[in-house]
Specification:
Belongs to the amino acid/polyamine transporter 2 family. Mtr/TnaB/TyrP permease subfamily. The chain is an all-alpha fold and about 400 residues long. The protein is built from 16 helices and no strands.
Length: about 400
């Protein structure tokens, strides 16, 4: 197998994972302390890598060009296909809502900072959405060109942010313990969402011609890179600001201002702000393009293409409406996205692999863990969904 293709696939997985969810980690972990959040991150990374490998096992028994919907229909029937389609759409909409909510607030501050003109959060949110919607509606080629520049810039700025913050880490801050036990469970859905990359697996399988050893390498390494980046990010955020200050300054803008004020670096606030902007934009472009193409394909009838403008309106208006009604809904929307991600990344792979292991005549590759691994994965999935439901009804504390 071409090493360049494996390397490229590894970066696609890492790039898909590292996005705006990274910005939510310090907010979700504020009441946990570094050690507890690290334990949760390691466990959820292992789970997501495991279920991604389950997808590789499933793909051995399907066409290498099969999408998630095709796989769901092949192994779980028409109902499985509808569940996969609904979960995919719910996930895309929830993520878009989160990125518009976070991006709108950031955009308002950026306009004020560069022009001195104060813009309402509503106007900034609408303008931010219109700009991204225009790029996506024009076409994938435009998104690709814009995204390349943004992604490369994001990596450089992220390195600068980590360099700025690292010397200011205080060991005692990293030793903080959870403020209350409910926060530990409440943080799980948001942290879980930060490790989602399963939507890209069918494309990677096709790109690597279904070559199992290459796929395993790309998935394990590609998912481990974000884990390492997240650990460094948690060290330099939770280690720079004390726990009580983080809890008192929830919200993306507040987090950025708190970090800049604590470190006393005049340029740090702007640098972190630029990184946050880039993380939101790259994530938003990728997710909204996926939703746009999914809806465009679903709405096309008789082979006749659906209007791109109409598809754009259906893609962007609902999540923008959420962001306008809940301008502080960044963390909330990521929590809801976790429910759909559990279905797509845990429940569906486990259900399909059960079918595969019963029906298949021969097994070329089978993920370790057997039935015990499938049971544990299912239990964790139920815990994540239950946590988000309990947050929604007010039993568990809400974050952000």
């Amino acid at each position: 197998m071409n090493k360049s293709k494996i390397f490229g696939s590894t970066l696609i997985i890492a790039g898909t994972t590292i996005g705006a969810g990274m910005l939510a980690l310090p907010l979700a972990s504020a009441g946990l302390g570094f050690t507890t959040s690290l334990t949760i991150m390691l466990a959820l990374w292992a789970l997501m890598a495991y279920t991604a490998l389950l997808m590789v096992e499933i793909h051995q028994h399907a066409d290498k060009e099969a999408t998630l919907h095709t796989l769901a229909k092949q192994f779980l029937g028409t109902k499985g296909k509808w569940v996969a389609s609904f979960a995919m759409m719910f996930l895309f909409y929830a993520l878009c809502a989160a990125y518009i909510a976070g991006g709108g607030a950031q955009f308002a501050e950026r306009i004020t900072g560069f022009t001195g003109v104060t813009v309402s959060s509503t106007a900034a949110t609408v303008l931010f959405t219109v700009i991204v919607a225009t790029v996506v509606t024009i076409g994938t080629g435009t998104v690709d060109k814009v995204n390349r520049v943004l992604f490369l810039t994001k990596i450089v700025v992220m390195a600068l942010v980590l360099t700025f913050l690292a010397p200011n880490v205080t060991e005692s801050y990293l030793l903080s313990m959870p403020v209350e036990q409910g926060l530990v469970v409440a943080a799980i859905p948001v942290i879980f969402t930060s490790f989602g990359f399963h939507g890209s697996i069918p494309a990677i399988v096709n790109y690597l011609d279904g070559h199992t050893p290459s796929l395993r390498k790309a998935i394990v390494i590609g998912s481990a890179i974000p884990l390492i980046v997240y650990i460094f990010w948690q060290v330099v955020t939770l280690g720079v600001v004390n726990q009580s200050t983080l809890l008192d300054n929830q919200g993306l803008s507040a987090l950025i201002n708190t970090l800049a004020t604590t470190v006393h670096q005049s340029n740090l606030g702007q640098t972190i702000g630029v990184f946050a902007d880039l993380a939101l934009l790259t994530s938003f472009l990728g997710v909204s393009l996926g939703l746009f193409e999914f809806l465009g394909d679903s709405l096309s009838k008789g082979g006749k293409p659906y209007s791109r403008v109409a598809t754009g309106l259906i893609t962007f208006v609902p999540p923008m409406g959420f962001a306008l009604f809940y301008p502080q809904g960044f963390i909330m929307a990521l929590g809801y996205a976790a429910i759909a991600l559990v279905i797509l990344a845990i429940f569906l792979p486990i259900m399909m692999v059960r079918k595969v292991r019963v029906q298949a005549q021969e097994h070329h590759y089978q993920v370790i863990g057997g039935n015990s691994g499938l049971i544990v994965g299912t239990i964790v999935g139920v815990v994540i969904v239950s946590a988000q439901v309990l947050i929604t009804v007010g039993v568990l504390p809400s974050l952000g």
